[in-house]
Amino acid sequence: MSVTDAQPRVALVTGGSGGIGRAVVRRLAAAGHPVAVHYSGSKDKAEALVAEVVGNGGRALAVGGDVADEREMTAAFDRVEAEFGGLDVVVHTAGVMRLAPVAELDLADFDEVQRVNVRGTFVVAQQAARRLRRGGALINFSTSVLGLQFPTYGAYAASKGAVEALTLVLARELRGRDVTVNAIAPGPTATPLFLEGKDQDTVDRLAAQPPLERLGTPEDIAELAAFLAGPAGRWINGQNIRSNGGIA
């Protein structure tokens, strides 16, 4: 089935109750997309966001599930398709970050990061590859840390390197499907995930590094996601795009 520019493009945002995910949901809903707000442990936040979207005249649905569990994600995708009649855009923002020097990182933390960020991305991408309609878009999330090489980010950067590799391969595997696959690599962005564990001096130092001399906002990243999800982004494919104010 083909989706024209005039038809609403149904979107699923994983991690939709989180900082960047929430901004993406709001931006896509404002553009007229019916949006499924995925959550793992924040059902109340997801349902509150759904109520906000619906209250503003949009269509939204909350769906739960562990992104690394193929059964739970199959059920989540099934529910989105049953509610909205199909699926055109998947924005995969869900992820975790554990910071420590390589020599000191607990391997249980390493395993969690790889399970959620690598396996979770693979599971979601697999479902998207099977289900997205012609004209669809899959948008994964990487990190600009891959170009910055910050100490303590070893496990996180390793997981996002895998996300970038998967994104480029899948874009080529979907030849002939008219489905784009890209990754957004945010720089330092003022989200709870980024700010957790950082003192004000560290935040100020990171904010001063880009030529634009500020942290990114979730809304900055959501604008790029909306571009890639919409008709204006159809010629962007198989790219890892750093959205970071010029920091790297």
TrEMBL record:
Keyword Oxidoreductase applies: yes
Organism annotation: Kitasatospora phosalacinea
Domain Ketoreductase per the UniProt entry, residue ranges: 9-187
Record carries keyword Oxidoreductase: yes
A Pfam family recorded for this sequence: adh_short_C2
Alphabetical keyword list: Oxidoreductase
A single MF term (Gene Ontology): oxidoreductase activity, acting on CH-OH group of donors
Similarity remark: Belongs to the short-chain dehydrogenases/reductases (SDR) family.
InterPro entries associated with the record: KR_dom, NAD(P)-bd_dom_sf, SDR_fam
Protein name: 3-ketoacyl-ACP reductase
Name of the encoding gene: fabG
